[in-house]
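Predict structure. Chain length: 408.
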Amino acid sequence: MNDAWFQAYVLLAFRIDKVLRLIAKDSLLVDYYYGPPIWKAQVENEPPTPAPVLLQNAEELGAMLAHLDLESQRATFINKQVRAMHTICRRLCGETFSLDDELRLCFDLSLPLTKTPETEFEQAWARAEETLPGTGDVLTRLVALEQRLALPPERSEQIVSFAYQALAETRRRTQAFVDVPLDEAISVELVQGQKWRANNQYLGNFRSRIDINLDIFTSFRDMLPFACHEGYPGHHTELALKEQQLFHERGYVEQAIGLLISPQAVISEGLATLAPTLLFTPEEQQHWLTEQLLPQAGVKITPEEAQWESPVGALWMGVRRNAILLLHEGRKEGEVKDYLKQYLRIDDRQAQQALAYFQRPFHESYTFTYTSGATLLQPWLQGADRFSIFASFLAEPLTPSALLRQEG
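Prediction complete.
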């Protein structure tokens, strides 16, 4: 019975994914898959399943789950994943949900949906403006510094070489507390025309391909955070460990498929978001940048410029979260785009890209996985044992609500 149930679980995920992609080509449910190829091929070769049939399948899957003989933690994980798919099917059938309910049902998150006060954004920019080297208009100074810290278009392909160096450094530090599979590997590719900066595509067999979007990602400052988030000890490390320890060693078939609209994503994005601060202090990041990377790129900056940190990275998620809440209040798109431009100090094209990203089906709620996942995991990573706890989280089938209960 178990084998048939897990086959049905995978087939449902791919069938929902197929329908979502018809609604919007860049909207998807399945992020990666390395299970039996025949299951994926079956869905590829059949017509799209009507939404009411998907909903019925999800209900049947949930009802059968109680009859499976599963370990408690695994059963909780699977139950929450099935609930997420069931909710997606309800929405595909025309049912509407508040943002609160969508976060609870799809991502296992119960959050106070209050906006971050704009005064926090303004104060962050005021502090940054005081320390930003140079004179004159602050935006002019900011653009000039960022241009110096970015590869010019004619040398953009060099970013691959620098990305590999950053991945090598983060891998070296990760190996101090994580036993990564011996034959794991990451390849880096350049893309354009995407709404994201970088993306990890996990391929199975402990392999990942990381795509870097040249339309957005050109700054040397982003190198170490990128390598930590997408590679070590972030997404690639997590998925390689789960493939090794959960799929191969324990037979957890559900780990072979990644569902973006699910509690699984909250834990994954939370771990990846916290990964840079786990490996590096701000001073260590700055030292690596100025001593290792910038000399190779022929970039010279002053110590004051090296120490200066743009508030954009710290404010990025908070401002976007507020923008989503504004949309749910009924604010017009133009007003929300101006909001993004004002508090992130980005141009019209960048604001439009950010707006388009979370206007895809379910992606407005997905934005909360980064901040909420990090907030959920952060209290566990405060002590001297934070590295061992982080390592254990990388290889466990966790759910947000279960972690919250344990912390309480």
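Summary: The first helix runs from residue 2 to 23.
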